Amino acid sequence: MTTSAAGQSPDSVPRTVETEVLIIGGGATGTGIMRDLALRSIHCHLIDKQDLCAGASGGNHGLLHSGARYVFSDPHSAVECREEGAILKRLAPQCIEETGGLFVAVAGDDEAFANNFANLCEAAGIDCQEISTDEARKLEPHLSADLIKAYLVPDATIDPFRLALENVNHARELNDSTYHPHTGVIDFEISEGRIKAAICKNHHSGELLRIVAKQYVNAGGAWAMDIARLAGCDDVSLLYSKGTLLITNDRLTQRVINRLRPPADGDILVPGGTVSVLGTTSLRTDDLENSRPTIDEVNQNVIEGTAMIPSLADARYIRAFARIRPLVQNGGAGDDRSVARSFSLKDHEDQGLDNFCTITGGKLTTFRLMAEKTADLVAKRLGNSNPCLTATTPMPAGTSCRWTEPGASPKYWYEANNSDDMILCECEMVPQSAIDQIVQCAPGAEKEMTLEAIALRSRAGKGPCQGSFCGIRIGSYLYDRGYYTDRTGLHHMRDFFSERFKGMRTIIWGQQAAQMELAEALHCGLLGLDCLDDVNPSTENTQAPNQHQEDK
Amino acid sequence: MSDATVPTINFKEKAIELLPEGASFDACLTCGLCSSGCPASGIENMDPRKFIRMAMLGMNEELSSTPWVWTCTQCKRCQHVCPMNIDISQLVFLARGNWPKEKKPTGIVRSCELTRSTDSTSAMGLPPDDFVFVVNDVLEEVREQQPQFKDMVAPIDKKGAHFFVNQNSREPMSEPDEMVPLWKIFHLVGADWTYASKGWAAENFCMFSGDEEAWYEVIKTRLDATNELECAVWLNTECGHSYYTMWNAVNRFGMEANFRVESLITYYAQWIREGKLPVNSDWNTQNIKFTVQDPCQIVRKAYGDSIADDLRFVAKKLVGEENFIDMQPNRSANYCCGGGGGFLQAGMTEHRRTYGKRKFDQIMATQAEYVLTPCHNCHSQMEDIGHHYGGAYHVVHFWTLICLSLGILGENERTYLGPDLAKIGL
Amino acid sequence: MIEDKRVFTTELAVIGSGLTGMAASIYAINRGISTSLAGNTGAIAYTTGYLDLLGKADPSSCTIFADPWQAIASLRENQPHHPFARVTDEEIRLGFEEFTAFITSCGIKYSSPQEHNVMALTPAGTSKPTFSVPATMQAGVEAFAAKKHCTIVDFRGLRGFSARQFVANLQSEWPRLEAARVTFPNMEHGEIYAEVMARALEVPANREALAQEIKAVAGESEVIGVPAVLGMHNPDEVMADLARLIGLPIFEIPTMPPSVPGIRLREMFEQVFPQKGLTLVPQQKVTAVDFKAEQIQLSLRDNFGPITILAKTVLLATGRFLSGGLQAQHDGISEPLLGLHVSQSDSRDDWYRQYYMDRAGHAIHLAGIEVDDQFRPVDAHGKIVDKRLFAAGVMLAHQDWIRGRCGAGVALATAYRAVNEAHKLLQTA
Q1: What is the CATH number of the domain that holds A225?
Q2: How far apart are CA A120 and CA C310, in angstroms?
Q3: Which long-range contacts (CB under 8 A, 24 or more apart) does A223-228 make?
Q4: Which residues in chain B have Cβ-Cβ distances shorter than 8 Å to A423?
Q5: Same domain assignment for residues C272 and C333
Q6: Among C253, C273, C301, which residue terminates a domain?
Q7: Rounded to an integer, what is the distance from CA B115 to the centroid of its chain?
Q8: Which residues on chain A are in Cβ contact (under 8 Å) with B57?
């Protein structure tokens, strides 16, 4: 695995920590494994070279599939989704909104395909109810007048960030299992058919960390192949598919709206609290590190989505984001969407290692099952016979984990009615006290968190201003608290704005053009963040420039 | 005051209905200019920007029940300063109307009920006969005691009169002598005017209570009365919201008005220019300083700067150009004083005074001894905050000063003058 | 209901009431041109109060030019299409002089144009080059230059301005800088806006109370810095009075929007212009402009009905995206009022670079209206649209006012020339 840290690491003796299991990758699966193992009283460390849900887990619709989407291509997955969805709805309701879903076909779509839908759902045991197109439009006024078919299904939406936070938080509470953000594995110490230690590097501080574990789990998502190769394993073969999604300023529908046709671009519009998420595209790529939305993909999503929901043509979009989906290669070409999305768990014994495994593929909805299978293997190898408890144990709602839920912080703030708890993010109404709690005790909280890390654990920066105002207020507040004490704080602000910008670049038209102009006027004109230092950052830069060394 | 039994409005949906495209909440940049410039910001921990965001975030229960909507006077200053012209007051109005009657501030509800209780449309419930009686009674007295006005009239129900003049109930109910200065002015300029026994009153608390139907009903009575008397101009007395509730209603409800809706201020200015009201500032030998309050309902929400200019023209003529100190900001950008929107009747005294602090500071910054205003609610509020915050200024209506300037202000017509002016011309 | 139709006749109609429109109005008033000004005053309330002429000769470099005139000379060579390339140094100087003289005479004193830029302060604790500063910020410029012993005082409840932040970031260059906090009198709770404090300071009693608070934390400092709250209508008086009461010079530092220095300018213009005979239609947008042979007809509305302005010349100064002078759609940028040709990159993909802070800046900011040497808009073929139509300000193409640190410079210089050109035209007619 590569890091961009060449030449920056100080010559230091790495600190060593010991644990039972090291999990690499803080997405839904990795954090799910962490909790599963903790529930079996197995201690873990979790590392992620960026932060929670930095891969596909943080770059999807947030859709908790009823399974209906897979009845055509992958009935086995469809059933899995149905079952897992039911478990999650029961046990982690705080992460889920039971919105319901619709599958709709419009004039010109394949009617035979549409007609077959109900049967296939029934076969998979998925609730599917046909309704008239008039009824559909009554339920969802934004639907096109050209609807020809409509079916109700039990889709729901899930907040992957909250999920990851709760997983990590619960594991921490259970047995002090620890999560290290911005920490990536750069090497493994291997001898006698076992991994003895993982050498990891904190990309912010440059510090090395040596983690000695009995078992090592590769849940690196799209990076899993690279990680496996670092351990000398050739048996993980992935394809990379980039998907771009858009977020609208306003929630357009109550329910998930799916296009009833063979999967293509812009097929799904998913409500997410107060916004809607439209996507997605699927472009084969080799580039893991620089996934960015392109203008073409954005336009494509809008065009396709408009067929179902005409108001998407004129909607105000506030963000576009792209992430890489790892697709487990099973040989044979074909549309990337049709490569089986079921997961694969490799024990690497034929690669000469007996304490390493890789879990890849899969989808957000079935993360728990993926984690269960992986934890089963790991527990067995540890001689631990505790059963998996994640299908029966409710997910506790950690107080510092609630801030990602849309509407949670405004409600909290309103009810608390404390005028001295000032709002720092006006768009999403995030008060000071939420920021305080996050920096003190949210999963992955550190001595000096970046604004990006704080934003990840809250709704700050997710509204129409996309952080351009609140980044200034939050930065200022953190200085005021003595949390930032030098120019590093300004760099965090600059990096935060730059990161947010990535999401805005391709959707700057209409109102966003005004918002963006104001943002740049503030960040550069008012604050001078474009001239913070003399290093020219004009080269492509996906990671926060490492400024700590230079400023002290 | 949060109550689960208040029905919930979907504010976001309503905003889409009510607000024009481009000026919708979707266009909001969350820049905060509205909140920064709103005297209700901070009351009940709310402000206009938060209101918009809560609407967009779907916090309908909270918005449907926050008492803040009774502290926002719907002055529309937020819209005035907003680069996107977003008008939050419309949703506040909606929220008000949505409150169950028994939860609304009783003072406002009661006033609306009284307004509808007789054909007078008086918020103090003064029936037509009593109004007629008081007017005639006072008129008789003035004719007797002030010989130069022995031929003065105060017509009621004079068909075909040019001006249909309304009357704020406060005067006939509690200080009838305060009606007289305006009669004298009409007399002097030879205006062809009339009161009406039906629909004579000015105030309209039904609009403040968010009750559209009641608002309409009240206006209908007044409109019919004016149409029936075949008057060319419905002339609004020195009262702010009475102008706005009439003018806005005619458009909003598509009513047929066979008359123009105008303000007394316009005519003061006109009559002065024409020489019909030969006012001057000679009486102001002490160079007493005056400022002017721009009632939101007449200036920003209605006529705009042109009537604000007339206000100042009249004021300067009355007190002397050098004795006039404008408050800052002023005209369409002026602050609401907090007397409007039913605030004076809402029983939320502490909030009302908090709201009024900005106005108090504005007045104090001018160091003026008097505030002139053509609005009863502004008048009451500015007096109250003056007492509360320890200001020594007085608040007067224009008619008082016009008559003072012309040397015709009667002994009983000086209630609001301070000791420095009380004796002038007697 | 009978609508009230109003018709105004003027020689010059200025459309857009940002800095450019206001400057144009000043020049017009000074030249005795009967003028009307219409527009929505949005963006001006976001400005810092600093008037930038030119901070960088090359927007893609962070090298600051102490001498803006040198920077302009360099710019004329490197960016021959920049609006500055069409005006002379003399015109720029005169434009600044006239503007600052006017606003100074109206009670908001600004420093007169110099031969050099000054380094001014930002709320983040960084510094930037600017050309003319309000008198209320002058002591800050001097204190920074001389590295005086200074206490920065912030206010409880004012978000986005932290004295500690300011000090933390400037301390290495300015060691004798300290941070303190006070509570603004009678504002002990909740979120407080700079505007509210500024207006409160117009009242002597509030100044006295605040001075006490500041004295208590001033320590050994020689000078006090506060966020921009030093009055709204009489900033110079408020500053002088506070300084007297505290016993130390005091200066203000710009804040994030809503910005008091911007609101000061707006309120001042809205009062002063009508007094000086200008026809002001505030807070209303022009909806149509008809270039008839006899005259140009502009249409607007207010609450009362239609307003028509009949003018002999028109100056378009409607700004960029924020103020609605330009609009971006999926497939291009347009000028919505007159449909003028907008010079722009071929594809939306080129509007913004990949990296936000890329020193090369973003091409979208260079898009805008093309003009000839008389600052008359031209079409895609270089032909002027109407000889009576002029355009000025940041809506013009080939300048990046944000990265180039030349917003006020572009506004004033182009307004100056455009008004002079309009004047010439009016005189020949």
Answers
A1: 3.50.50.60
A2: 70
A3: A223/A1, A223/A25, A223/A49, A223/A55, A223/A288, A224/A25, A224/A326, A224/A358, A224/A359, A224/A360, A225/A326, A225/A360, A226/A1, A226/A2, A226/A288, A227/A1, A227/A24, A227/A25, A227/A185, A227/A358, A228/A346, A228/A348, A228/A358
A4: 50
A5: yes
A6: C253
A7: 16
A8: 274, 406-407, 410, 428-429
Which of A:264-323 have CB within 8 Å of C? 292, 294-295, 299, 302
Is residue A336 one of the residues assigned to a domain? Answer: no
Q: Is A477 on the interface with C (CB under 8 A)?
A: yes
Q: Select the residue of B47, B83, B305 nearest C42 (Cβ to Cβ).
A: B83
Nearest C-alpha in B relative to C281: B305
Domain termination residue (choose one: C227, C253, C279)? C253
CB neighbours of residue A165 within 10 Å:
28
Instruction: Tell whether C199 is within 8 A of chain A (Cβ).
Output: no
Range of C365's domain? Answer: 6-107+263-428
Within a domain: C417: yes
**Pick among B21, B29, B33, B53 to test the C interface (most C CBs inside 10 A):** B33
| Domain that residue A31 falls in | 15-55+161-237+341-382
Q: Does B42 touch chain C (CB under 8 A)?
A: yes
Question: CATH number, domain at C345?
Answer: 3.50.50.60
Nearest to C270 among B35, B333, B357 (CB): B333
Cross-chain residue pair C126–A528, CB shorter than 8 Å: yes
In this complex, is the C-beta atom of C301 within 8 Å of any C-beta atom belonging to chain B?
A: no
Residues of B in contact with A250 (CB under 8 A): 12, 26, 56
All residues of chain B having their beta carbon less than 8 Å from the beta carbon of residue C232 are 328-329
Structure tokens at B206: 């039904």
Do strands A96-97 and A156-158 pair parallel, antiparallel, or not at all (unpaired)? antiparallel
Q: Hey, are the CB atoms on C46 and A521 less than 8 Å from each other? A: yes
The length of chain B is 426
User: Are the CB atoms for B304 and C302 separated by under 8 Å?
Assistant: yes
Distances (CA, A) of A366 to A62, A77, A322, A372, A373: 13, 9, 21, 10, 11
For chain C, give the longest Cα–Cα distance: 69
User: Is C172 near chain B, with CB under 8 Å?
Assistant: no
Domain total of chain C: 2
ipTM field:
0.96
* Phi–psi pair at A87, nearest 5 degrees: -60, -50
- Strand pairing of A275-279 and A283-284? unpaired
| pLDDT in 10s for each residue of chain A, 552 residues | 333 344 444 556 789 999 999 999 999 999 999 999 999 999 999 999 999 999 999 989 999 999 999 898 888 889 999 999 999 999 999 999 999 999 999 999 988 888 899 999 999 999 999 999 999 999 999 999 999 999 999 999 999 999 999 999 999 999 999 999 999 999 999 999 999 999 999 998 899 999 999 999 999 999 999 999 999 999 999 989 999 999 998 899 999 999 999 888 899 999 988 899 999 999 999 988 888 999 999 999 999 999 999 999 989 899 999 999 988 886 444 455 544 457 899 999 999 999 999 999 888 999 999 999 999 999 999 999 999 999 999 999 999 999 999 889 999 999 999 999 999 999 999 999 999 999 999 999 988 899 999 999 999 999 988 999 999 999 999 999 999 999 999 999 999 999 999 999 999 998 899 999 999 999 999 999 998 875 433 333 333 333 333 333
Chain B interface disruption, residue of C201, C203, C284, C329, most B CBs within 10 A: C203
Establish if A318 belongs to a structural domain.
yes
- Domain identity same for C334 and C274: yes
CATH label of the domain that carries residue A267: 3.30.9.10
CB-based contact (8 Å) between C334 and chain A?
Answer: no
Query: Tokens 């905060």 — which residue?
Result: B32
Among the partner-chain residues A250, A419, A426, the one whose CB lies closest to the CB of B26 is A250
